[in-house]
Design a protein that fits this description.
alpha+beta; about 15% helix; 1 helix; 6-stranded antiparallel sheet
Length: about 130
């Protein structure tokens, strides 16, 4: 009887140990959705200085999908990303009453990601 109890205790400890450090499946995320491709947009004033808190609007001219973001401390935003979709995207910036001339970027998509050409844009606010 004592041997049977010891066997059950041993078996129970083995099962308990396997729960803690047992078989683990490494689940890498989907590489197509984990890291979105972004467009770097810098907003500058007429003198070339960076503009904080400028509102950047990106609109896909075909689908009408829009992403709006605000520049950070260094006058840059990377919130415009591949979710905007394939095709031509028009970008503008505003800060108070000042507006930039529009710029265009072309997003080209493959089976996994969309990439912008060019991959960075500088928008200059009109004086």
């Amino acid at each position: 009887m004592l041997q049977a109890r010891q066997r059950f205790l041993f078996l129970g400890l083995v099962l308990l140990a396997s729960c803690d450090g047992g078989l683990r499946v490494k689940r890498d995320g989907n590489p197509c959705t984990d890291n979105l491709v972004t467009l770097r947009v810098e907003v500058v004033d007429a003198a070339g200085g960076t503009v904080r808190d400028a509102i950047v609007t990106a609109t896909n001219v075909d689908s009408g999908r829009t992403i709006t973001s605000t520049t950070g401390e260094k006058g840059v935003t990377t919130a415009v990303n591949e979710d905007i979709g394939e095709g031509t995207v028009r970008l503008t910036a505003t800060a108070g009453s000042k507006v930039s001339a529009p710029a265009e970027v072309t997003w080209t998509c493959d089976e996994c990601h969309c990439n912008p050409t060019p991959d960075a844009v500088q928008l200059q606010l009109n004086p």
